[in-house]
Specification:
Layout (H helix, E strand, L loop, with lengths): L5 H7 L4 H14 L1 H5 L3 H17 L5 H14 L13 H4 L7 H16 L6 H7 L1
Length: 129
Amino acid sequence: MFEIQSSEVQTLRPYSSQTVDRLMVELRIRFPQWCAEQTDEQLRGFILCGCEDAVMYGFNREEDVVRMVTIFAVFGLDFVLDRRMKWATRFLNPKSPMPAPMRIQLLHERVMRMVGLPVTLDFEHRATA
């Protein structure tokens, strides 16, 4: 059996502290009222939980993790337990034959359109401008 050192755990994560910082900005732009009700610590904790859950669903690219966290911001971390959201579970199955980037892109687009938000994330605009 092998042991993973704590310094190695961060390298296994598909997100960094910079990703979390960017997500704090992204969520404040997209969800200003909800974020105003959160302390920085609460918002960071929500983002970290969302990042971990995204990895659990098989999303291993940073941009996929970011998209999943924005979905969690819309519906909550436990939205998959809601019967009305059963349609989303096919996109969350890490054993799906559909590649993870395609699963999260389709899920993210559908969710953002459902709630009337832009599909493209704000920091994606800034990165290409």
